[in-house]
Each structure stands twice: as structure tokens, then as C-alpha cells.
Design brief:
CATH class of the largest domain: Mainly Beta
Low-confidence stretches: 361-401
Number of domains: 5
Shape: globular
Strand content: over 45%
Distance between the termini: 68 Å
Helix content: 10-25%
Largest sheet: 9 strands, antiparallel
Radius of gyration: 34 Å
Mean pLDDT: 83
Number of helices: 4
Structural class: mainly beta
CATH topology of the largest domain: Jelly Rolls
Number of strands: 48
Length: 753
């Protein structure tokens, strides 16, 4: 730390006085950053219930971000009412995050304005930058609304001071974030003393264990039995797959049959499918687009030639009326923005007499989100995980004997996105959502229309700091210049689901010299207007808001039935698979019914034992049932990727793996296959090997019932090869005497001894 000396009779420069404060702060920062080194930590903060049931009181404290320290100098009340769940049985955890701010405070000071030489003094009082202060503010990170609410995941660069559990009645619980709290030296010393005492006890225990192990070693005459070694090898192979360890040559290989990576579907003798298990192939199938039976029905409304919704009226749910000011939508700086437009998430449903649930579903966690592409997007639909910070990677569903349904966890997905190139001045407005609903459009009040320039409006999500997220667009709409006029102009968004507790925003992009109405005096405190010059950072206004109307759907019926074009399959079908984009938020639900030929009534697609497809109908009608409320209802996207696959499986299966190279040569191999829904009266299974293009039959095959399931069997095939090899492939031959009662493989393991 430097010392600024004034011992000599010198003329002191203003920088000398500033350096005193700068040296003190730099020394404090250096000590906090390198000697103490607290990354994203806090000290002294307290969070307690305020007098208001919906608010918490946040006391004074400090926030350390690794290189600097920020003070929260005054206690404040934070109202959390807008984040509460609406349903009494639901809850939501929110995290209170500390944010760093650095502000410059101006103060009035007398400044000398006379010229040199100073014959007379002419001081003038002016406001000058005087204090540079670091302060900590509090923001809210939201968790999911759920009957079993869980705390949100905190980024490693964020500092969480507390978690607050919200119920419909207000604040339910407050839990301090101990992981991010700065521990005092005294507290560390107490913990260290306890750790040292535990280590001393561990050392004593280890000494005793060594003595015991030495005694046991003297009594062991033989190594572990072969069956135990076999189990250990299988367990190790499964662990490798689950942990997604890097590829390396081993003398064993395990695969759960969830993805196609290990399977040679192009082999000339291959005759199988991979779909959550090793499945019998379709002997006949159709792949058709899901289409409406009557697109002109008065019970539905269609947007963009693909969005199918129950019949409804377009109503103004919210209006910020025309104000006394205006905002010019064009300025001298234009942005070139690449907006990332999301897509409505997809669902996938498999239904029929031959649908069986695979117990290996838990192993999807080892495949890092690939379940979405393998199960939800069928028919070759491409998907990618975007470069956003936290792409979602999950689905939820229900699985019964004859129906498996998967739904992505997010209403709008990052897996399928569209890049929208936009050029122009960007102005935005955010607004909260307090209830479920379907947004149809946004109206803006134009006070002036320029001579050229279309206007594009994008509906977007809002970041946790309240700013619009230009890279998370839900829908875009463009009004051509010829259709612009002074007054209210609507931007038709089709249909966008709105979820309570979320904040949304819209922003305009145009190169035209247009103006829209603006209110002043913070007339809309729940929202904020923003301006952006670079398409990334947005500056908010505390006083001005842009006039707008939100056009929502008001549904005429709580239940709407939508018949689809029937599907057919020569010689009959035993199962149906569907994939489509759909939205069903809140209490809204989308279900399906079927009516096979020869049946007089509609039957719900559920897990009932008397499955209507067990009769192998050649023609099957089906319909969607949309159930909601006057304010909220589900809708479905019937585009080219909305597909329905009808199939009937064959009675022979030949599943072949890719070649696998062992770490060492071997002439003794065992192949283990777990088969489910297996009945030895109706089914056969014969594991084999392929070595150098030749098929090798097993020396012996052992069938052992599984202890956990009476329908699952462990099939072990042992092979003695004539010569040592390093590379081979596995093969599973299976047959059934029925195209209704079909087994499937759950996993395969190849062991070389």
C-alpha cells in the first residue's frame, strides 16, 4: 500500500488526494481477492419475514465477487407477491441473488473560475463527481411451480444469500444459503479442530483394520469364485456406460438398447429396431401426416395454416392507453440482430397392444439429454442443443403396459430453433403475466407513419434481471409499410402460451421513421420500456412506457373434440406412434381417443388391458380432445412434422451390434442378453457372435428368470472360439409364434475372457 506524503511545501494536485482513497481501496481489494479469495460470497446479510405476508426484509451486508467488495448499506423490504403460485397446493422456491453495482455520486462544490494570475477570486458552485460507491442490490431467481417445489440451481458465478419458499398465502419459509456465506476465522478454527479429532479417530480405525485384514489374509486359500468375478465385470461395464466414460479398449462392452450408436442397422441381415429396447421390426407400417378431418369446422380456429385451437373470441385483456408523448422507432444507430426463435415443444406417444415399457429408462441420465431426440422427435426431425447457458434436457411422461407418452419439460424448446436476422432500431416493453392464457397479438398505437419501412415485432422472454432476452424469441410478426396507419395497429402472433409468474416482453425492429405512443410518469409500474443500440444490451426507463394492448383468446367451450383423418394399414395395425408439437399449460389438457373399424364408441388412449388395437384393425379413426377454461386451452401444431405411424410387427428378429475391439485377444466369450415380456412357450432367443463375417453359434445357452420381474429372463450364451480374436460383433436371433405377444431385449453385454 502506497503512502502519499505532503511533507514538503508543495502545490498539491487534486490527483494526490484522489490517490489516497484509490490506494486504500486497491489494498482492500488486493487483500480480499488474493489473501481471502471469496468468489461469489456474502457476509452479514439477514433475511426475515416482513410485516407484509408477501415480503421479506433484507438486512445490511457485504457481497464479495472475488475481486471487489460491495456493501448493502440499508435494510430493504422485497415484495415477492408476483412470484407466488396461484394454486393452494403448489409451492415455489425463489433465490435471492446479490448483484454488484458501482455508482458515482455528485455533490456541489465551489470551483475557482478566474484566470491566472489570480488577482481576484470568482468561485462558482457546481455539481461534480465526488464519491464512487460500490453497492449490492438484490435480484430474484425463480424456481419451478410444483406441488413438490425444488430450489433453483444457482450458477457458480452468482451469490445466493437465501432461498424463500412461496405459497399462495405468501412467504412460507426462509433458508439461508450457507454455501455462499463467508466463514469467520474463528468458525474455521472450530471446524478444523473437529476435523482433526475425526482424523485421529480414523487413523486409529485404519490401524485396527490393517491388523484385521492381515489376519484374514492368512486364512484365505483361494481367490474369489468365478461367478463373483463375472458379476463384478458386468457391474463395471454398466457403470462405464452410465458415467459416459471416454472410449477405451476393454474386454467387455455393455449397451442398454436406448440409442442406435452400438447397433448395425445397415447390416444386410439386420432385422430389428432400437426404441427404448431392442425391438422386433415392423413387417408393415405407414408414416402419415396428422391432418384434420374437417378444417372448416366451427369448433376450431386455425392460425398460420397449422396452429389448431378451440373456437374463441379475440379480446383485449390488457391496455396501456395512448399517452401524451411519443417514441420515434428510428434512430441514427441501427442494430444487426440475430434473434433465436424457439419452437413449441413436442410430444411423442406410443400406443397399442404390442407396446411394452422398458425398465432401462433410468439409464437415459447417462446419455445427456439424448432422450428428447430419440423418443420425442421422430420421422427424422433434426434437433440440436443450443449454445444458451442452460439448455433444458428433459421430458416427463407416464408409462403403462400399452401406452408410453413423453412430453418435454418446457413449453417452448431450445432443441429446434430458427435464426431470424433483423436490422433496425430496437425498442422494447416488458410486462408480467398473472394467469395462464393464450396471447394472440399485440397492438401498438402509431402516432406517425414514415414514408418507408416495415415494422417487425418479436415476443420474447425476459432475463432474471428484467431485461428483454433478444436471443429467446417466442414469436415474430411483421406489418408491411402499406398496412401501417396512425392509430392502433395489430401484430398477429398466431398463438403463444402465457404462464403465470413469468415476465414477457416485446420489441420492435424497423428502419422506418415511425413513431408510437408513449406514457410518462411511470404509468405502468409493472413493466419497463427499453432501448437497445447493439442488439445485446438494453437500457431501461423508470419513467416511460410504450402504449400497447394485449389481445388474448377467450374460448367458447371448455371441451372441444377435433376429429383427424383416419389411418389405415394393410392387414391391420397393432400399435400407433404419434409425434406433434403442442401446448397444454396449467389445467389445460390434450388427450386422444381412437375408434377402430368395427367399434361403435370412442375409446381413450390409456393403459386398459382390453386394448382396441389387439384386434389388428385395418382402419382406425382418432381424435384429439382439448379441455381447458374460458381463459386457457391447449392447442396443437399440425405442420409437416406432425406425424402418425401405424405398424404391425413381424415374428422374427435379428439384432446385430457394431464390431467391438477388445483390449486383449481372446478365444472365450460370453454374451448376456436380458429379455423382457419373454414367455418360453411362445418365444425363442439365441445369442450369437459374428467373427470375420461368419456367424458363430453358442456352445451352451442358459436361461435364468429375473428376481425382480417374472416377465424378464437373463440369457447367457458361452462361446469357445477356434482361434484367438480381438474384434467381433454380437447378434440376437429371436422368434415369436404371435405378432401380438412379442418380447424385446433390454440390454446386451459382451465379455471376453
Amino acid at each position: 500500500m502506497d503512502i502519499i506524503k505532503f511533507n514538503e511545501a508543495e502545490i498539491v494536485e487534486p490527483e494526490d488526494f484522489t490517490a489516497i482513497s484509490e490506494n486504500a481501496r486497491d489494498d482492500f481489494d488486493e487483500n480480499a481477492a488474493k489473501a481471502l479469495g471469496w468468489p461469489a460470497h456474502y457476509s452479514s446479510f439477514t433475511v426475515s419475514q416482513a410485516a407484509d405476508a408477501d415480503s421479506v426484509t433484507i438486512g445490511i451486508g457485504r457481497y464479495y465477487n472475488g475481486s471487489a467488495t460491495y456493501n448493502h448499506v440499508e435494510a430493504e423490504d422485497l415484495n415477492l407477491e408476483v412470484y407466488k403460485p396461484l394454486v393452494a397446493s403448489d409451492g415455489r422456491w425463489v433465490a435471492l441473488l446479490a448483484r454488484a453495482n458501482e455508482d458515482t455520486i455528485n455533490k456541489n462544490r465551489r470551483l475557482e473560475t478566474s484566470d491566472e494570475p489570480l488577482n481576484s477570486s470568482e468561485p462558482v458552485t457546481q455539481s461534480v463527481p465526488k464519491v464512487i460507491t460500490r453497492t449490492a442490490s438484490i435480484t430474484v431467481q425463480l424456481g419451478e411451480i410444483s406441488p413438490t417445489a425444488v430450489k433453483p440451481t444457482i450458477d457458480e458465478d452468482d451469490c445466493c444469500i437465501a432461498f424463500v419458499l412461496l405459497k399462495s398465502t405468501g412467504v412460507e419459509d426462509i433458508v439461508a444459503s450457507e454455501d455462499a456465506r463467508v466463514k469467520s476465522v474463528y468458525e474455521i478454527e472450530i471446524r478444523l479442530q473437529a476435523a482433526e479429532a475425526n482424523i485421529a479417530n480414523i487413523n486409529n480405525s485404519v490401524t485396527t483394520i490393517k491388523t484385521d485384514v492381515a489376519g484374514i489374509a492368512q486364512q484365505i486359500e483361494d481367490g474369489p469364485p468365478p461367478w463373483l468375478t463375472y458379476q463384478l465385470v458386468r457391474g463395471q461395464a454398466e457403470i462405464r456406460e452410465e458415467l459416459d466414460m471416454p472410449d477405451e479398449a476393454f474386454n467387455y462392452k455393455s449397451d442398454y438398447g436406448l440409442v442406435k450408436d452400438f447397433w448395425d442397422l445397415d447390416h444386410p441381415n439386420a432385422n430389428f429396431r432400437i426404441m427404448e429396447g431392442i425391438r422386433f421390426p415392423y413387417v408393415n407400417m405407414s408414416n402419415d401426416r396428422i391432418e384434420l378431418l374437417d378444417a372448416a369446422s366451427d369448433d376450431i380456429v386455425i392460425y398460420d395454416n397449422k396452429i389448431v385451437m378451440p373456437a374463441h373470441a379475440r379480446v383485449v385483456r390488457f391496455e396501456l392507453p395512448k399517452g401524451g408523448s411519443e417514441q420515434n422507432l428510428s434512430n441514427t444507430t441501427y442494430s444487426v440482430l440475430t434473434a433465436i426463435e424457439k419452437t413449441v415443444s413436442y410430444e411423442s406417444m406410443r400406443y397399442g397392444e404390442t407396446i411394452s415399457v422398458c425398465s432401462n429408462q433410468a439409464q437415459w441420465r447417462a446419455l445427456r439429454g439424448r432422450n428428447v431426440g430419440e423418443l420425442v422427435y421422430i420421422n427424422g426431425q433434426e434437433y440440436t442443443i443450443t449454445k444458451k447457458e442452460k439448455p433444458h434436457s428433459g421430458y416427463y411422461g407416464y408409462n403403462l403396459k400399452r401406452i408410453i407418452r413423453y412430453t418435454e419439460t418446457k413449453t417452448y424448446t431450445d432443441y429446434i430453433t430458427t435464426e431470424v436476422g433483423l436490422t433496425g432500431a430496437i425498442y422494447a416493453q416488458t410486462f408480467p403475466c398473472s394467469q395462464y392464457g393464450i396471447l394472440l397479438g399485440v397492438q401498438l398505437y402509431f402516432t406517425h407513419v414514415g414514408s418507408t419501412g416495415d415494422v417487425t415485432l418479436c415476443l420474447c422472454e425476459v432475463r432474471v434481471d428484467g431485461t428483454p432476452d433478444f436471443e429467446s424469441v417466442l414469436k415474430t410478426a411483421t406489418v408491411a409499410h402499406v398496412d401501417l396507419r396512425e392509430g392502433w395497429v395489430e401484430f398477429d402472433l398466431g398463438a403463444v402460451a402465457q404462464e403465470p409468474g413469468n415476465r414477457y416482453g416485446w420489441f420492435t425492429v424497423t428502419t422506418g421513421n415511425h413513431s408510437i405512443s408513449m406514457t410518462t410518469g411511470n404509468a405502468f409500474p409493472e413493466g419497463t420500456s427499453f432501448a437497445s443500440t447493439d442488439g445485446v444490451w438494453a437500457q431501461g426507463s423508470n419513467e416511460n412506457d410504450l402504449s400497447h394492448r394485449l389481445i388474448m383468446a377467450e374460448f367458447k367451450n371448455n371441451r372441444t373434440v377435433v376429429p383427424m383423418e383416419p389411418v389405415s394399414l394393410e392387414n391391420g395395425m397393432t400399435e400407433i406412434q404419434m409425434a406433434y408439437a403442442a401446448v397444454q399449460t396449467g389445467s389445460a389438457s390434450l388427450s386422444w381417443q381412437v375408434k377402430p373399424v368395427g367399434t361403435d364408441e370412442w375409446i381413450d388412449m390409456d393403459g386398459r388391458e382390453d386394448n382396441p388395437l389387439a384386434t389388428k384393425p385395418v382402419l382406425c379413426a382418432y381424435q384429439a380432445v382439448l379441455v381447458g377454461t374460458p381463459d386457457n386451452a391447449p392447442f396443437i401444431i399440425l405442420d409437416a412434422d406432425a406425424r402418425i405411424i401405424c405398424g404391425r410387427m413381424g415374428t422374427d428378429m435379428v439384432a446385430i451390434t457394431e464390431d467391438y475391439t477388445f483390449a486383449e485377444t481372446t478365444d472365450s466369450v460370453s454374451l448376456v442378453v436380458y429379455m423382457d415380456e419373454f414367455d418360453e412357450v411362445h418365444h425363442t432367443v439365441a445369442p450369437k457372435l459374428i467373427v470375420g463375417g461368419s456367424v458363430i453359434d453358442a456352445d451352451a445357452i442358459d436361461y435364468k428368470p429375473d428376481r425382480e420381474s417374472d416377465t424378464r429372463v437373463k440369457v447367457t450364451a458361452n462361446f469357445t472360439l477356434g482361434a484367438a480374436v480381438t474384434t467381433l460383433a454380437g447378434r440376437i436371433d429371436a422368434t415369436s409364434d404371435s405378432d401380438i405377444l412379442l418380447p424385446f431385449g433390454e440390454s446386451i453385454q459382451i465379455n471376453a475372457f
